[in-house]
Design goal:
CATH class of the largest domain: Alpha Beta
Number of domains: 3
CATH superfamily of the largest domain: Nucleoside Triphosphate Pyrophosphohydrolase
CATH topology of the largest domain: Nucleoside Triphosphate Pyrophosphohydrolase
Largest sheet: 6 strands, mixed
Order of helices and strands: HHEEEEEHEHHEEEEEEHEEEHH
Structural class: alpha+beta
Length: 307
């Protein structure tokens, strides 16, 4: 049996990772370069309808400059094989026009899309969705309340001095979240929130709090939610989670106690499962339902089972 806390291991793949887009940071600070990118013959825009990406025939639906309205929110994603790529939030009228002209086109929930798209395309969805969502939530300055304008090709917002603002710059934030398996020999701890479907179990998770390390957050969350005390913590993998914009930090934690005491506001159930039970679930034939492979909870379980 592997001791994850004394030797290296290879984590399973995580969803929303593997984009082939070069984010081209050097271009974001150059308005002329971004304007030239918009006019590039290979420039394409990934449309979102209420944060749902548009797909056609199982792939991302990229549109060209002639199909985008002038007043739509857009962000520069970067370069794909030298061709500029943008994400854009489309008004409903434009989405209806696109889908009516292309029977194969449809707006899909980003989670559902990530379960069917190739990994590199799902990563682009995460990138574009997080940026657009952030802009739609941050139209006003947190310092003074004045309106903000999009800046740096979509990677910042600037408080509008010409409208009485303070001029502060605001940048897209990513919230760190720990997600972990407590391990006790040949068993791991899984739980279910009250909102989960019946029989659905997953790794425990929670936001990292101010003044707290990743390891401290792992130990605190396991104790708060399930009453489990843990010692050694080891990093497994991370995953962008664009709902709205988190970084999931996956870990294993060495259990030093095993008696479960639930925080019933957070968890409806928590149980220790054997490696054989988890392996059966990942194979589609087990005592509970598991998150899909695009979720880092699946990555943690798969890594633990395979080691």
């Amino acid at each position: 049996m592997a001791d994850f806390f004394t030797r290296s291991f290879t984590p399973a793949a995580t969803g929303f990772c593997g984009s082939r887009i070069d984010r081209a940071d050097h271009m974001r600070r150059d308005p002329q370069a971004v304007a030239a990118a918009r006019m590039h013959p290979g420039a394409r825009w990934l449309p979102f309808d209420t944060l749902r990406p548009l797909l056609a025939d199982g792939a991302l639906l990229w549109i060209d400059r002639a199909q985008i309205p002038a007043d739509a929110l857009e962000v520069f994603l970067g370069l794909e094989d030298g061709a500029p790529r943008f994400a854009i939030a489309l008004p409903a009228r434009v989405t209806e026009s696109l889908t009516s002209g292309n029977p194969a086109a449809e707006a899909q929930d980003a989670r559902g899309a990530a379960m069917t798209l190739p990994a590199d395309q799902a990563a682009i969805v995460a990138h574009g969705r997080s940026l657009i969502d952030w802009h739609q939530r941050h139209g006003f300055c947190a310092n003074c309340g004045a309106p903000t304008n999009i800046a740096k090709a979509g990677y910042a917002r600037a408080c509008a001095r010409d409208r009485g603002g303070c001029g502060a710059e605001h940048f897209p934030r990513t919230d760190p979240v720990v997600i972990m398996l407590a391990i006790d020999g040949d068993k791991c701890l899984l739980g279910r929130q009250p909102s989960f479907p019946a029989r659905f179990m997953s790794a425990l998770a929670g936001f990292v709090e101010p003044g707290e390390s990743i390891e401290e957050a792992v130990r605190r969350e396991l104790h708060e939610e399930a009453g489990i005390r843990t010692a050694r913590v080891t990093y497994v993998a991370s995953q962008p989670w664009p709902f709205p914009s988190s970084l999931m930090i996956g870990a294993f934690a060495e259990a030093v106690t095993t008696d479960i005491r639930l925080d019933e506001d957070e968890l409806e159930e928590a149980r220790w499962f054997t490696r054989a039970e988890v392996e059966a679930v990942l194979s589609g034939d087990g005592p509970f339902l598991t998150p899909p492979p695009m979720a880092i909870a699946w990555t943690l379980m798969k890594t633990w089972v395979d080691a």
